[in-house]
Design a protein that fits this description.
Blueprint (H helix, E strand, L loop, with lengths): L1 E4 L2 E4 L9 H34 L29 H27 L2 H15 L7 H32 L5 H23 L2 H12 L16 H40 L7 H15 L2 H11 L3
Antiparallel strand pairs: 1-2
């Protein structure tokens, strides 16, 4: 083995000596450690340089914001939550987002939506086309008919509760009380129109833990929402199924007539639904069935 130092050379041994296994393993570990340390130094240097390049500049009022994705900047719309106004705006947004998450439940429980959706779904089953119209079509029609029916009530709530509350002219409790009063008026009108007062007495008896006479008058404003809402839902379910039965009856008669004719002709293996479906569709179109059903639904809430 030859060692060079300061330009001089020396030879140890006449022949080359083979390297021992332990020495070879030690040299391999040393070389691997040196390469690892070098790579770490390179990575650290590259990361520091990249951080210096992409590090955000201090925010300067009026300076352009680096926003390549075009994400809306709401800092100009909302005040900073370091003052009373900022905290109030933040709380209002929190309340609004919470209400938006509960909108589907509120829509189903306190509006005309359940009755309309159930009647249209039963109509689709009665015609014999369980997949037509699609569910999205029935849902959209029910939603817009519900908006049309509920618009007078929502306008009262908006004018008497929402606007004064957002203008800081009314407290949250007062606004909620006014909104609940209008919703209870609507729900009680539907219960009274259907004659389902027993539903109110049922939940009142459970709430007050006493038996209530059916001759005792009910003040809608004195009934809490925890009683009025389930009573309204029970009433709507009963009304919707009664209307669905009336819609179902003509189509049931057609099915029975077609089945009787096929049986008398000895065609027992032929499904009656296959023959009755065109006749039901023809009858429904000639009678302008969709117009009649939607008209009946609309005037059932007046």
């Amino acid at each position: 083995m030859r060692f060079e130092h300061g330009g001089s050379s020396s030879t140890q041994g006449a022949a080359s000596v083979p390297v021992r296994p332990r020495v070879a393993a030690r040299r391999a570990r040393s070389l691997k450690a040196a390469v690892t340390i070098a790579l770490l130094h390179i990575c650290l240097a590259t990361g520091t340089a990249r951080a210096q390049v992409v590090s955000p500049t201090p925010s300067v009022p009026g300076a352009p914001i680096d926003n390549p994705l075009g994400i809306p900047d709401i800092r100009k719309l909302l005040p900073s939550a370091t003052s009373g106004e900022g905290v109030s705006a933040t709380l209002q947004i929190l309340v609004l987002l919470t209400v938006l998450t509960l909108v589907p439940s509120i829509l189903v429980m306190t509006t005309a939506f359940p009755r309309i959706m159930i009647v249209l779904a039963l109509l689709r089953q009665a015609v014999g086309t369980p997949q037509l119209p699609p569910g999205q079509v029935l849902l959209g029609l029910s939603l817009f008919v519900t908006i049309l029916v509920m618009t007078p009530t929502w306008q009262k709530i908006y004018a008497q509760a929402a606007i004064p509350y957002f203008d800081s002219q009314m407290g949250q409790a007062a606004a909620f009380e006014i909104a609940g009063s209008h919703m209870k008026d609507f729900m009680y009108r539907q219960i009274d129109r259907a004659g389902n007062h027993e539903d109110i007495y049922l939940f009142l008896e459970y709430t007050q833990d006493r038996e209530i006479s059916r001759e005792e008058p009910v003040d809608p404003q004195a009934v809490p929402l925890t009683v009025m809402v389930p009573a309204f839902m029970l009433s709507e379910l009963k009304t919707a199924f009664i209307m669905g039965f009336r819609v179902y009856l003509p189509f049931l008669v057609i099915d029975m007539v077609i089945a009787t004719i096929l049986l008398s002709m000895g065609m027992m293996m032929l499904p009656p639904v296959l023959i009755s479906l065109p006749f039901k569709l023809l009858l429904f179109v000639l009678a302008d069935g969709w117009h009649l059903v939607v008209e009946t639904l609309l005037f059932s809430f007046v």
